[in-house]
Structure formats: structure tokens, C-alpha cells
Write a sequence for this structure.
């Protein structure tokens, strides 16, 4: 593949720069108290100055064993990876509520819908700077 063609294609990888990894990053998102949810998932969001979305995932042991928790995480990462270019420039934290994950297309739709709902709310009431 030529360099020009590769440059024109949209990048759908999921590198470390798109992940929330450290506790202070998660705490900052939770502290903004901007969330949207349903019976399966709660999505928290905080704007960032990076120009792209980042994802953090938390899956409690209450959801089930390691196999079930890892399934949730794999599906959430894939849903984010596929829709990352349609999401607002924000740090997103997904907190799993439901026992069994929905299908991938449904999960992608959920994340996009919740992120858009939070984004509209943030535009109405901007975050307070400390």
C-alpha cells in the first residue's frame, strides 16, 4: 500500500493514547458527574483538549466471573474502536451494570447515543474550571 493511500484511510486502531489507564484520569471523569445510562451500561464523560475520544472501562466482579467480565471489556473496546471517529473529543468511562453484554452493533449504538446525549448536556452547561 502506498504511503499516500494509507494516509487517506481512516485509522481504526486502538493504541494506548486512546485509553484511560491511570486512576487520576478515571477520577477526573467521575468528578465531572456527567453521565448517561441504561440497564446495561453507564457512560461517564469529561471533555478533553486532545481532539479525540479516550476510553476507560470498569467491570465489577458483581457482573460475573473473569470470562464474563473479559467478554464485556472486549466488546466495549471493539465498539469504541469502530465508532471512535464519531464520538466527541472527551474522556469516556464505561461502567458495566448488566450481567450479559448485548450484541456488538447494539453496544456501539448505545455508546454513541449516550455520548451524544452527554455532549449536548455539556454544551448547555459547561464544566466549571477549578
Amino acid at each position: 500500500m502506498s504511503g499516500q493511500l494509507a494516509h487517506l484511510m481512516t485509522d481504526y486502531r486502538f493504541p494506548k493514547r486512546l485509553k484511560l489507564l491511570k486512576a487520576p484520569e478515571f477520577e477526573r471523569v467521575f468528578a465531572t458527574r456527567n453521565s448517561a445510562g441504561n440497564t446495561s451500561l453507564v457512560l461517564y464523560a469529561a471533555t478533553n483538549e486532545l481532539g479525540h475520544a479516550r476510553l476507560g472501562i470498569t467491570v465489577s466482579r458483581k457482573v460475573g466471573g473473569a470470562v464474563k467480565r473479559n467478554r464485556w471489556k472486549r466488546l466495549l473496546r471493539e465498539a469504541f474502536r469502530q465508532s471512535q471517529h464519531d464520538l466527541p473529543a472527551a474522556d469516556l468511562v464505561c461502567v458495566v451494570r448488566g450481567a450479559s453484554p448485548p450484541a456488538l452493533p447494539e453496544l456501539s449504538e448505545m455508546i454513541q447515543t449516550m455520548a451524544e446525549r452527554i455532549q449536548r448536556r455539556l454544551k448547555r452547561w459547561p464544566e466549571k474550571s477549578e
